[in-house]
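Cross-posting from the modeling subforum.

Setting up a comparison between two proteins and wanted a second pair of eyes on the formatting. Protein 1 (sequence, then structure tokens):
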Amino acid sequence: MTVDPDLVIKPEEWDRWRAEMHAVTLSPECLTIIRLIRQKLADQFETLQVYVSDRRWQRAALLMKASAYFNDRTTTNHSDAVLLQHCLWTQGDNRDAVATIVADAIRDTGFSSDVDFMKAIHQKSAIDKEIHNELFHTSDIYETVTLEDGKEYFEFKIKYRNGTIYNQYIQKEHIYKNSVPTLDEDLNQNDDFLLDFNNTATAKIKKSPYNHYSTPTFQDNSDTYVLPILFHKGDKKKDVSPRLKESLRNNVEDIRSRLEQALTQVRINAEGYETALTSPFITTPQRDLALTGINKQIESLEQHIADCQRLEQLCA
């Protein structure tokens, strides 16, 4: 077979291509993909036994640059990273596993941004917890009374067999415990009965070992009493400092602003990216891997922005 002389690659062309290929830059996205692959290979080394030397990584990077170069680009993109599946496996029985690791890394990598939106998302999670701790009750708050000793007590009305009703008290810290003795209004211990909470806010009366008579009941003739709740877990606190609420809201607004900025950048980068990913070296399904990751990134940012708006309403 005779090759047209015009199609023969000349040595000087090879030399020029090599120099120009080295000038191609690895995009932040490709660097992220490489980092994810290296981490996954390290995590699965015991199973896959795949070791990639620094020299092989350098050659793999040059392969990605060559792909970008022959697609008339000066920077690599997700499509070039697909080729890593061909140069990282070591044996036939780990080839498919390596291809899956490469595909997962591409799918999990969206666009890099000037805004560290992962940091913003972590900050949003932290401010979410702070808002709920500062503005909302994190547990049920029960009704108590303060006696002469300055301590808080739960008050019960106990009915004896003769119909007499007495106020009885237990210390606040004894809630949820078993065999809790009660106190009278003078803070003297009552030996007639004990209360069992069984890790709940419901007290059940039982006979004391020192009681040789019948067991008294609560005021409604029941042997069970549910502590009265002033505020349920999740109820908004009253009299919270307006300055604190404003500070929390401002923090959330700052996070939302950064996430919106990141979303704008990602959407701009996504415009026409499908065309930029098209390459003769990969298939259409492989190209769509990157699009899946980018769409997932956009969806995630939109959800976190909406969640910021929810947190701002909580601070109102």
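Protein 2 (same layout):
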Amino acid sequence: MGTARRKAIYFIIPVFNEAGNVPRLMDSLRTLDETLRTDFDPQFLIVDDGSADETRNLFEASRGAVDVKIISHPRNLGPGAAFATGFAHVAPSLADDDWVVTMEGDNTSRSELVEQMLMRSREGYEMILASPYMYGGTVQNTSLLRTFLSYCANMFMRELLELHGILTMSSFFRLYRGSLIRRMQQIYGPQIVERPGFDCMVEFLMKAVYLRVSLSEVPMVLDTSRRVGKSKMKIMRTIYNLLTLTFRKGKWKAAAHGVEGSVEFSGVQTRAL
């Protein structure tokens, strides 16, 4: 009798000119590998989105025994395109009882929260978001203007895009059940997301809500001082892209078979219209 397959946990991490962040990120991946290996087969997928610095070389030199695979785009296409590449890459081997984690590549995702997110998933949730906006979370070392704009954007999107009850819209740091990713790939294609920019995670969230996915959030302290260099996100471009998401709602709802119902969200019933 063959050995039973261990559940895998895939980490999809887009990077673009993150050479200064690679050493600390690799330390986090080694810790995750050691922590999770008892129960899972951890696999780390770095999608290098056209970096012009030493990002890829540093990953190659420092990965050691950690199962890190690097896929490179020939030019910078945007984080959404990098996530799309990652989702498509894991599709052939992903099983329903596996897990997928998406993370920032600049160390602002608190990797130590992965275990807490997995514990939360035992309550039956298919998707867990790390949120600096829920009780117990906060934003540190970020300008008041950027924090204010982020808060306003989240509040605006909840109303405009019908994402009521969800506190964090665009954070990359999330945990997904393998069965959810497979279902979304069957409906929306292997790449799941089509938006190449930072609005890709809002797109993913919209599609998940239209499928009546069960969601929850865990608090996270977002500390931008953990990042070397500046954020790659262009505020005005991202705001414009978020506004244009309203024109895609009909298409994505139709793809989800026009299902209307309630989405379970941490004990709150949210309407998916």
